[in-house]
Amino acid sequence: ALFLNYQWLRRDLDNILMPTSGTALGLQGGVGYGNGTLERSDVPGTSSARAPFVRAYARFNAYRPVGSWFANARLEAGHVFVNDPIAVPDPILFRAGGDNSVRGYGYRTLGPRINGVVVGGRVMTTGSVELEHRITERLPSLFGAVFADVGSAADRWNELRPVFGYGAGVHYRSPVGPLRLDVAYG
User: d(Cα 152, Cα 144) in Å, to the nearest integer?
Assistant: First the structure.
C-alpha cells in the first residue's frame, strides 16, 4: 500500500507533561491505495482487492480540577472509508483495548474477528472518564485514581458493540512524565 498521512494537534493545557486544566485535540487524515490478499477458509483460493482508501481519526482530551480532585475525559473515533477492506493494510485499520484505550482488555484485542482472530476494523470509538486525588500531602506527586472506559472497533458502525472497563490505580507525576499502575476489569 501507498499511504500519505497528515496530523494536526492543538493543545491549550496548563502543563504539556502533566495537564490538570485545558484541552487537547488531535486530528489525522490520510489517503492511500492498497493491494491486498486474504486467504479465507470458507472460500476456496485467495481473495484479493485493489482500492483507494481514506482514513480519518480524531482524539479529544479535556482536563479540569474539580475541588481537590482532577478530572480528565477522552473521546476518540476513527473511520477508514473503502469499498473493499481487503485492500487496506491491517496497521491502518483500527483496534481497541489496552492502557490508552479500553483498560481491562488486552492491547488491541477489541475488533472484528475472522476465524477467531481479532483483525483491524474500519470504524472505532472509545471514551474514558477518570478522577484523580492526592493520596497524601507528604507525597504531592502520588495520586489515587478511579476510571471508566468504553469502546470497541468493528467493520461498520451498526456492528460496533462497545464494551466497558473500569478500575482504580496509583499515578505518580514524575519529572519526566506520568507513571501509572492501573488495575481494570472488563
Answer: 26
Q: Is 156 exposed, middle or buried (0-12, 13-18, 19+ CB in 10 A)?
A: exposed
pLDDT digits (tens, 9 = 90+) for 77-94: 999 999 876 778 888 999
For cell 481479532, name the residue. 118
Q: What is the pLDDT of residue 110?
A: 97
Assign residue 13 a region: left if phi > 0, alpha if psi is -120 to 50, beta otherwise? beta
User: Hey, CA dihedral for 8, 13, 19, 21, is it positive or negative?
Assistant: negative
Helix (H, G, I), strand (E, B) or coil at 41: coil
pLDDT digits 0-9 by tens, 12-58: 999 988 899 999 999 999 999 988 766 545 545 556 778 899 999 99
Q: What does the buried/exposed string (b/e) look like for 119-141 if buried means 16 or more CB atoms within 10 Å of the residue's CB?
A: bbbbbbbbbbbbebebeeeeeee
User: Alpha-carbon distance 106 to 3, whole Å?
Assistant: 28
